[in-house]
Predict the 3D structure of the following.
Amino acid sequence: GAVVSQHPSRVICKSGTSVKIECRSLDFQATTMFWYRQFPKKSLMLMATSNEGSKATYEQGVEKDKFLINHASLTLSTLTVTSAHPEDSSFYICSASHDLIAADTQYFGPGTRLTVL
Amino acid sequence: QKEVEQNSGPLSVPEGAIASLNCTYSDRGSQSFFWYRQYSGKSPELIMFIYSNGDKEDGRFTAQLNKASQYVSLLIRDSQPSDSATYLCAVIGRSGYSTLTFGKGTMLLVSP
């Protein structure tokens, strides 16, 4: 149980284009979804937290107009990296939690590796 | 500023030995504590969570929490080469807002 998927697993795009990453909770309804970014040999950095039907809460230093997050349903959240640049190349990982499943526990998706040329 | 500190390692242990991973945190009011395992190039995988002082055992893994000393540890018994990975300690603070603060992780190497 508590399976989270992400799509795509890997994407290469040109500088200036936008990329959409999907995060789905497959066997539970996610009250909250989180988006992280991880650079090589660094720890996970939380980018934003989203609750279904609400605007995402962004961490300090994360541009909300560049990283658009939509959490339209209890099983789907999307992260769109707009006008991507090479410095946006990173490993993007989502996680999901539900109040009724071991409250506070986050289950992670497999991640999306973004390379911006 | 909430901080979670871990020794980056690598921690090297022989196969069959006990691996001990430690983590300290700065927010004294922290409520929830998690250990994740991350293989290179992969996303974190939940190993255990612990909320109360003391020990919590799950198979070969034992999490230990000492809130007075603000540390949490993970013991891995009968370590296997497949346990070689980076182990991330994560903490949720007192605010009740369920955001995890991660440590930088400890790399564990189990040699055959």
The mean pLDDT of chain B is 92. Chain B is about 0% helix and 55% strand. The two ends of chain B are 40 Å apart (CA to CA).
